[in-house]
Each structure stands twice: as structure tokens, then as C-alpha cells.
Amino acid sequence: MSNQKEIKNLKSFSTAAERFEGAHVLCPGCAHSIIVREILNATNDNLVVSAATGCLEVCTAIYPHTSWDCSWIHIGFENASTAVAGAESMHKALKRKGRLDPNQKDPKFVAFGGDGATYDIGFQWISGCFERGHDMMYVCLDNEVYANTGGQRSSSTPIGASATTSPAGSTSYGEKKNKKDMLAIMAAHGAPYVAQVAPNKWKDMVKKIQTGFATEGPVFINAMSACTTEWKFPMHKTVEASDLAVDSLVFPLYEIINGTELNITYRPKNVIPVRDYLAFQPRFKHLFKPQYEYIIDEWQKRVDAKWDYLQRREEARV
Ligand SMILES: Cc1ncc(C[n+]2csc(CCOP(=O)(O)OP(=O)(O)O)c2C)c(N)n1
């Protein structure tokens, strides 16, 4: 079982013992740091953390400084998952051989990667860890772009977004493909727990992280991480961008248990149109030209259909 922190209110949560210190050079307004703080603040357990190459890693470990007040390793772009899986296996083996203090609680093993590291380049390693059933949590900081290297598209980049390798211009509306449904793919591994979270819905997020830590076996968390630099909204509007994402249902919040039981965890009182979400982010501004309006309409239809599907899955429990 995990050593869960009691969360009374936002003030007590935000001032809880810090294991992710303020000293980092992430962009002002970057959601990565909010998400990581929320995750680390959700537990009192010892942590073994790995970070794939990406914004989080380069900005939190500039030698000789570190933002991490816990065991932490930077590993290759592709294998943050296998690094903590290896540590978890070693911990198990040492325990079995009686070489660890039996009174010491087991640590939690957590890997962080961006969407480039998760949806694309590290995917086979993550899939392997989930197939082998390691007792670990993998968190994708999903900013829908390879932010650290200048904003190239990933398979998480949504259709119509202007990214440096899929730029909008006189003959292009930007990215041509729909975002990959990573949560469905990870649930299809039969993982005991997968969930989507967003930092603005912090209570929902903490609950899911605590559920994840209390779960035995591999846990996948897809965290929406609004990127002020690549989504091009003002840096003080990260929470507003995140609110628009969850209230438009572009990024619905739900969890899937054992690959089957689906629970929707946030139902907006007033669902806002997808176009309001898009209008907030200049990476989509060209979609408002008359010739590209159809992309917004199609997007709205997809969001409606997905929401309908999620609700039917929730009722059917399959
Ligand atoms: C195998 C490999 N390919 C490419 C790179 C170069 N690289 C380093 S960080 C990065 C972008 C990371 O993007 P993402 O995983 O989405 O995380 P973000 O920076 O957006 O948080 C790239 C392409 C690398 N270090 N290793």
C-alpha cells in the first residue's frame, strides 16, 4: 500500500513537503512543473524517479544543480520506463534475498517522459514494461510537441496544429494526422490502471495519482501539459488553456481499470465549443480562415463522438 498524503485543501497541498524544488529553468507558465509537483506532493513514500531526455530533464538538472529532492536518474530519450523497471526488479530481488531492511517501506517507481518520448520514440520500451507487469508508474507530460528541440510534431500533435515540421502556410493547414489515442493503447495492454489528468483539475489528479500509487502493477498516466511556448498562448494563462481543454472535452478526464472498467471523472457543467479551445492558441489561428473551418467542424464531431463513446463504455463496463 502507498503512504498517502491527506489532502485537505489547495493551500495545504501546495505547501506540502517539496521534493521538486522551485529552482529550475522551465519556461514561466510551463505546466510540466505543476504536474510534477502535484504528483510528488501526492505521496509520502520514498520515490525512485527517472526522466527521459526532454524539457523536464534539461531544465531541472543543470550540473551542479538539481530540482529533485529524491532519487532521480536521467536516462536516454527512449528508456525512462526501463530504467525504473530495472530499479524495481532489483529492489524486488534484493528483498527476496533478504538484503534489505524488512522494516523499510518499498519505494514507488516513477518514470516521466514527454509525448515524443512516450507516443513515439520510447513506445516499445513502455509497452514491454507494461507487458512484463512491473510495479511502476509511467507519466507522459503531453504537450503535443517535441518542445525541447524546437517544436517538431509528434504523433500526439493534433490535426491542424502548426508545428515546426508541419507548419501552416499558404498551402497547408499544419499537422495532417489526428492525435494518437495513447490511453486506449495502454489500456489495451490490460494495465491495472490508466488515466488522463490535467493540472488545473488538481483534486482529480491527486486522487488518480494516489490510486495509481496504491495499485500493484504498471500504471499509465497521460497528463495534459499546456505549453506556453509552442501553443503560443501568454505565459500567465496556462490554467486557462487547461480549463478550455477539459471543458471543451478535447481532453476528457477519465480512468480505465484493468483494461475494461471505464469511469469518467470530470463532467463539465457547461461544455464549451471546441472552437473556443482552438481560438485561445495561436498554433491553430489559420484554422479560422474560411477554407479551413471544416477542420474545426470535423474536430467538434470527433469530440462529440468520443464523449458519447466514453459514456457508453462507462455504462456498459466493457
Ligand atoms: C534517440 C534520441 N532522439 C532524439 C533526441 C533529441 N531530443 C532530445 S529532447 C527531444 C524532444 C523531447 O520531446 P518530448 O519527449 O515531447 O518532451 P518535451 O521536451 O516536449 O517535454 C529530442 C528530439 C535524443 N536525445 N535522443
Summarize the structure.
Helix content is 37%, strand content 14%. It is an alpha/beta fold and 318 residues long.
Q: What would you note in describing this structure?
A:
It is a single chain. The chain is of the alpha/beta class and 318 residues long. The chain has one domain: Thiamin diphosphate (ThDP)-binding fold, Pyr/PP domains (Rossmann fold, 3-Layer(aba) Sandwich). Helix content is 37%, strand content 14%. It is built from twelve helices and ten strands. Strands 2-1-3-4-8-7-9-10 form an eight-stranded mixed beta sheet, sandwiched between helices. It has a two-stranded antiparallel sheet with strand order 5-6. α4 runs parallel beside α6. It is globular and about 70 Å long. The two termini are 27 Å apart. The mean pLDDT is 95. Bound molecules: thiamine diphosphate (TPP).
SSE blueprint and pairings:
Blueprint: H1 10-14, H2 31-41, E1 47-51, H3 55-60, E2 71-74, H4 80-96, E3 108-114, H5 115-121, H6 123-132, E4 137-142, E5 168-169, E6 172-173, H7 182-187, E7 193-197, H8 202-214, E8 219-224, H9 228-231, H10 238-247, E9 254-257, E10 261-264, H11 274-279, H12 293-316
Parallel strand pairs: 1-2, 1-3, 3-4, 4-8, 7-8
Antiparallel strand pairs: 5-6, 7-9, 9-10
The structure holds thiamine diphosphate.
Thiamine diphosphate binds at residues 53-56, 77-78, 113-117, 121, 141, 143, 145-149, 154.
